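User: Hi! I have a protein structure encoded as tokens and I'd like to know what sequence might fold into it. I'm fairly new to this, so please keep things simple.
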């Protein structure tokens, strides 16, 4: 499904559900529910389709009669444990990263992903422009991982990882790979990537003739986990946001036609699907 479009006269269009997520007001799932309940209007007319195109410069979108406004940017670093899904809700009721930030009364989306069996640094934000910048391969934001492999890796295997390796979706970019140490049967490596394909580190190591037994993301750009406890989160500093190529987003209108009203008080949709507190 398309979520944005650029018209010849430079009009920027987004689908109605995307307006809510872009403003940091809620997930697309929440937006669809609000639209289905008849609580959303566009230019005074009750909206019926979440796929309706919205002109951000001309259209006025309201929820419960109040203009949709962009909330102040929130940027957090979560130390994701193994066994947690990077998703909002799981049909099998497995733990998700939203269980770990249920005490944060705001809608945040993951910046990229970590798979179920991986742990480490996961950024989350309500600032879609920041998330797009960090995840776009064009901006070359490095992601650092430490991996334990199922076998001892030879220098030839490590050099293959460094040069780039052929995967089923094309060759990878050259990577920085450093041997940390060898155990009796396993090699521990650090690998730095500037792209973020699905399960990329695992697939690269498999293509080199081994398997990843343990994978931890330790840094994104200059931002590191450091001594943050597993399962805990902290806010990024303004300096850290800037170091990742962003700037803290101030509150403001989500579309140019919104008034100067304060943000509508979103009915507290629980960020966590089960209510507990707290990609490579």
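Assistant: Happy to help. Inverse folding works backwards from shape to sequence: for each of the 280 positions I chose a residue that suits the local structure. Here it is:
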């Amino acid at each position: 499904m398309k979520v944005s479009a650029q018209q010849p006269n430079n009009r920027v269009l987004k689908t109605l559900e995307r307006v809510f997520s872009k403003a940091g007001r809620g997930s697309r799932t929440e937006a669809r529910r609000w639209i289905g309940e008849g609580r959303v209007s566009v230019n005074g007319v009750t909206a019926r389709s979440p796929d309706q195109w919205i002109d951000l410069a001309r259209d006025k979108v309201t929820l419960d009669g109040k203009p949709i406004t962009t909330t102040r940017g929130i940027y957090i670093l979560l130390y994701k444990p193994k066994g947690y899904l990077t998703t909002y809700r799981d049909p099998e009721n497995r733990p998700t990263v939203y269980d770990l930030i249920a005490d944060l009364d705001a809608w945040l989306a993951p910046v990229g992903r970590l798979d179920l069996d991986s742990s480490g640094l996961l950024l989350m934000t309500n600032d879609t422009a920041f998330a797009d910048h960090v995840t776009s391969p064009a901006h070359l934001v490095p992601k650092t991982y430490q991996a334990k492999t199922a076998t001892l890796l030879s220098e030839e295997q490590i050099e293959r990882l460094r040069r780039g390796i052929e995967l089923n979706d094309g060759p990878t970019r050259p990577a920085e790979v450093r041997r940390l140490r060898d155990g009796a049967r396993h090699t521990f490596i650090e690998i730095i990537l500037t792209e973020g394909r699905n399960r990329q580190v695992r697939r690269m190591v498999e293509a080199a003739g081994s398997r990843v037994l343990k994978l931890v993301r330790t840094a994104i750009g200059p931002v590191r986990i450091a001594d943050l406890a597993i399962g805990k989160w902290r806010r990024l500093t303004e300096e850290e946001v800037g170091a990742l190529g962003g700037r803290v987003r101030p509150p403001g209108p989500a579309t140019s036609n919104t008034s100067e009203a304060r943000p509508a008080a979103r009915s507290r949709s629980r960020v966590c699907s089960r209510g507990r507190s707290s990609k490579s």
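A useful reference point when you look it over: The CA atoms of residues 118 and 215 lie 5 Å apart. Feel free to ask if any position seems puzzling.
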